[in-house]
Amino acid sequence: MATKKNNQSNKDINYYKKKFWRVFAYSLLGILAFFLFASWGLFGSMPSFEDLENPDSNLATEIISSDGVVIGKYFKTNRSQLKYSDLPKNLVDALVATEDARFYEHSGIDGRGTLRAAFSLGTNGGASTITQQLAKQLFHRGGSSFLPFRIVQKIKEWIIAIRLERQYTKNEILAMYCNVYDFGNYAVGVSSAAQTYFSKDPKDLTIDESAILVGMFNNSSLYNPLRNPVGVKNRRDVVLGQMVKAKMITKAEKEKYQALPIALKFKLESHREGMATYFREYLRDYMKKWVAENKKPDGSDYDIYKDGLKIYTTIDSRMQQYAEEAVSAHMQNLQQQFFIEQKTNKNAPFVNITQAETDRIMMQAMKNSVRWAQMKEMDKSEDDIIASFKVKTKMRVFTWKGERDTTMTPLDSIRYYKHFLQSGLMSMEPQTGAIKAWVGGINYKYFQYDHVGQGARQVGSTFKPFVYATAIEELNMSPCDSILDGPFMIHKGRHHVTADWEPRNSDYRYRGMVTLKQALAASINTVSAKLIDRTSPEAVVELTKKLGVKTEIPVQPSIALGAVDITVEDMVAAYSTFANQGVYVKPQFLSRIENKSGEVIYEPIPESHDVLNKDIAFAVIKLLQGVTESGSGVRLRTQGGGSGDNRWTGYPYMFTNPIAGKTGTTQNQSDGWFMGMVPNLVTGVWVGCEDRSARFKSLTYGQGATAALPVWGYFMKKCYADKNLQISKGEFERPANLSIKVDCYTRPTIVKDTTATEQNTDEFEL
Q1: Fewer C-beta within 10 Å: the chain N or C terminus?
Q2: What burial class does residue 21 get, using C-beta atoms within 10 Å of its C-beta: 0-12 exposed, 13-18 middle, 19+ buried?
Q3: 3-state secondary structure of 406
């Protein structure tokens, strides 16, 4: 009986052994099949070899200055690519110590970590390696809450992680992970996060800053430094503790960093803020046309928002910063005076216009507004839309002291914004055409019209050098030739004039015989009129076109006084021709474009052509030097002050080097200009309100010498202070065997009261 029971017992044991091994074998085969089917994509697509080789990284296109600074980006996802060598060692150490201590030991899956997580049911830490987290970020992002799906996703992560480990080195995997993680606030990747939260490049991150970013890898929504500083500090301290455990820092260092507060220098990267906003928008418009004409090797279109292009520009970040600072400082200063003058103006900021003209301006502004467009889309009637502009509403407005919350009607806000003086500045190397600085306005967020490349404004007396250059070329005149400043008239019928035209000087007086150099320095209108009468308007227009001016110029004698609309960009290019010995070089803002792999996919070809011979170009330079020696630009060299000197931002300038320049002021002081040149840099500045009827009432503040010249002076002071820029203080190159007399006899200077107002510097064009 006992023997029978023993046989039965042995039979049962063998049965269960066989059953166990059968279940084990089937389970193992099932798991292997599951992994195999998953790798084949039966449970959802898996990345191919090509996908692993070139993962969809959705990279932002970077705009890079000539001195190697990223001045802006185009992106839907703000992500920049970093190489492992670009990552700070302290961040890599912190990441490995916190997220995956055995990163350098495993092949994509940490077996010990997986078993620990399985036996503790996830209560003793997760099991995802950095490689698995990268796989998740690259190929399927969020996890499912449904357990069977979550298991499938986890298996797919394992498979992709193993493939990634075979495809890339450990350092490349670390760099990729640091490039794809979303840190919130539109910052994807360590590069964008460092700029957004600390306003610095990754290589400059301190240990505690790196610990903050590594802490965010755990959960960037929860550990957001802006919303949860306490939680971020605690998480940072955990990361520092892990670094101590891994012997990457000492206990003393940990305590030192733990004592530090969370110190942010937050700067949200957006298309409407940051450096060179107007230039970046101009470049974006250019790139829209570029992608239509330049295709990828496979024939598809480039996408500037996700293809990770690198656009290398000619802009110098230092000069751009100085230009923006100069515009901001002077416009804030000048705006105070404008507000003071408008306090007694019942129709502010408009001067000497009728109610009908005012209504037309305001109606046009309403129709151009976003509010009007939005309400039109809602099928609102015109009467309803106009009525909505008269209802008070809460809004945030621009002021020179920062944004301010207020309550006013949209109609009042339109009138408020029309008070603001605008400015445009462009700076260019005349020999290369390289644009070094571009400031299209005072604040792109609130005023998006670009006054450099987009807005053509009347140029006033800055047009006169084109007339003088034509006279020197056509009539064989020189800066030292004399001409009579006296009453002058072009009669009806001559040069297409429809009525007798008699120009007058701005000070309503005549000086008798003067040299051309004296005439341009004093901006004498009658002399310019006489010169264009002798050369013909057609000859002046022809030369101006050769100088690169694209706007249509009327063939009329009045253009001699500047009754012509030209952009700042075209004016700078035209003046650069004189500084470049008569050779016009088309303004250039691109150096090259690279794809995300660093391959050059585009290099522009410089465009240039001869306009004037060297002697004539140099003669014009000598004429323009007279403006800063004795004319309206003389305040660049003085320190005595004068009328309106409290609005000459940066004064005294006290430049002693050769400067060629010209001020310009249009009728009723609607536009103020200054064109300034040194041998290797030409800069043009325009100042005025959006509407020409919004202006200063007098020449004291409305003339180019007060409105625009100080921007140039302040900008150049900053450029000269930066020795690395190497802006020239030398003489303009004098042609060998110069055939034109340029060194004129001048009487000895008479000492006078330098605080007196210069009467002959104001300009007024009819």
Answers
A1: N
A2: exposed
A3: strand
The residue written with tokens 């298309």 in the block is 271
Rounded mean pLDDT, 664-674: 94
Measured distance CA(230)–CA(610) in Å, rounded? 66
Which element (helix H / strand E) includes 212?
helix 207-218
Q: How confident is the model at residue 153 (pLDDT cuts 50, 70, 90)?
A: low
Q: Alpha-carbon distance 704 to 440, whole Å? A: 18
Looking at 207-211, 217-221, 421-425, 568-572, which range is the least confident one?
217-221
Is 664 within 8 Å of 673 (Cβ atoms)? yes
- 377 conformational bin, left if phi > 0, alpha if psi -120 to 50, beta if neither: alpha
396: which 2 tokens?
């945030």
- Specify the pLDDT at position 366: 95
Residue 555 Cα distances to 39, 97, 458, 540, angstroms:
75, 75, 15, 9
Dihedral angle over CA of 575, 576, 581, 583, nearest 10? -100
Angle (deg, nearest 10), helices 464-475 and 537-546: 110
CB 722 within 8 A of CB 322: yes
Which residue, among 394, 459, 371, 400, has the nearest Cα to 667 in the 3D structure?
Answer: 459
H, E, C per residue of 637-706: CCCCCCCCHHHCCCCCCCCCCCCEEEEEECHHHCCEEEEEEECCEEEEEEEEECCCCECCCCHHHHCHHH
Residue 242 and residue 97 in contact, taking contact as beta carbons nearer than 8 Å = yes
Measured CA to CA in angstroms, residue 222 lies from 233, 247, 354, 611 at distances of 12, 28, 59, 64
pLDDT at 552 over 50: yes
Strand locations in 486-551 (E): 512-515
What integer pLDDT is reported at residue 343 of this predicted model? 94
- Measured between alpha carbons, how far is 334 from 351 in angstroms, rounded to an integer? 18
Q: Which residue has the tokens 């970077």?
A: 62
The reported pLDDT for the residue numbered 161 is 77
427 touches 437 (CB < 8 A): yes
Could you tell me the two tokens for 718?
């900053």
CA distances from 541 to 28, 164, 361 (A): 88, 65, 32
Q: What is the mean pLDDT of the chain?
A: 87
Three-class DSSP category at 724: helix
In which residue are the tokens 């005012």 written? 358
Other Cβ atoms closer than 10 A to 191 = 24
pLDDT band at 216 (very low <50, low <70, confident <90, very high): very high
The answer to whether the CB of 80 falls within 8 A of the CB of 189 is yes
Decide: residue 601, CB within 10 A, 0-12 exposed, 13-18 middle, 19+ buried.
middle
> Per mean pLDDT, which range of 40-44, 468-472, 550-554, 710-714 is the poorest?
40-44
Q: Are 588 and 434 in contact (CB under 8 A)?
A: yes
Q: Please indicate whether residue 141 or residue 446 has the higher confidence score (pLDDT).
A: 446
For residue 44, the model assigns a pLDDT of 52
For residues 624 and 465, the answer to whether their CB atoms sit within 8 Å is: yes
* Least confident residue range of 176-190, 332-346, 422-436, 518-532: 176-190
pTM value surpassing 0.90: no
Would the pLDDT of 425 be above 50?
yes
User: Given the DSSP bridges, would you call strands 421-428 and 681-689 parallel, antiparallel or unpaired?
Assistant: antiparallel
What does 467-503 look like in DSSP terms, one character per residue?
HHHHHHHHH---TT-EEEES---BPTTGGG-SS-B--
Model confidence pLDDT, tens digit, residues 432-450: 999 999 999 999 999 999 9
